[in-house]
Protein 1
Amino acid sequence: MLKGFLSRIDDCLAREDARPVIKSVAGAVLLSAILGLVLGDGVVRAVAVAALVLLALCSVLLLIGALGFLRREVDSQRGLVMRYVKELADRDGLPYRFIKWEESSVILNRRGDSLDTTTVRVQVIDGGMLFMRLAFGSGWPQPARHRGKVRLRVRKLMIGDRPGLNLERTVRWVKDGKLRLVIHFPEPPRVGEEISVVVECDWPGKSMPLMREGKADKFTFRFSRPVPYARYQITLPEGVDAVCEPHGFAEHDDGFHLGRATDEQGRTRFYVDGVDVVAHRELGVLLQII
């Protein structure tokens, strides 16, 4: 409730640009309060204390306005980064080709909180590879208030899938609860080199409709370039079961397999394997809790 109230204040300050007015009022209040405390009697001093409280409130409003301005400025800069990266990729083509995509979503509880891990392996086919573009999303249009709780980490994997250093990344939310991710490399990899990165994401409420409302939810991937091998794996909380259907392919289509298993903790797990996955085709699985 408090965060929503502060957000509405922020929007109001941004829309009306009330900061100059608040600064003027704060200056006048401060001067009056000082004079009242120094020169006034008991009643005047009480009024002066109230004025100081008002001054504190004005200071809070100014801080909210400043933070809101910075947040909007940062989001604007992120949008520019995304725009220029897309323009470069569209003009010159991707400097890499996908080798493997493995995505795992572990649903932790009845609230639909998820721990997602995506491992991407690519081969560099052109020099000057400074970034990689990826996209992720939930199966429902999450409200903006949920997005601030999402925590995302990116790192490079070394030989033997040993974890490497964290990589710089730019994240921007777009409509319908989807985010765009640009991974930045400190130096361009060599042409012909194979590199792997892992994206770990703590995503509160990602599967809320599935877990709390009993609605069918889809877990899918869709690529802008062909991918030789892709897997999407979903693990349900302990004691929870579901029914499933393929999404984007038929059960007996060549190159695709939908299955279920039980992990070492007794949790139900569903997975989709795809071989030679074509570009611009959404594939995955539909789940519904039973």
Protein 2
Amino acid sequence: MILRTTMEKCHCAEVYFQDILKIVKDSERPILEVARELGAAETCTACVSDMLSYIESRLEGRTLAGHTNY
């Protein structure tokens, strides 16, 4: 049996989701735009689903996902 753990950061870029969240809240820019500006969510993209879930659950009803094909 394989257990899947929830990611807390983009491991490729070493960027924590909480850091992306802070910028998104302060700037009201799309999540993926901010993530990619920081170098996250581009290399292997394994973090994208967890990152979007983490941030969207903390945005207090705002939707700032931006355009995504994930």
Protein 3
Amino acid sequence: MVDYIDIGVFGESKKSNFLVKALFYKRLNIDKKDDTFVFRTQ
């Protein structure tokens, strides 16, 4: 099994239904049945 997931963090928008530029974006490759991910914020 090989698949990708997209992780994104967006800032607050002045309009409630629009996204602003991504503050963080990463595409992760899932190649194992049981992958574990840890995300840390600064």
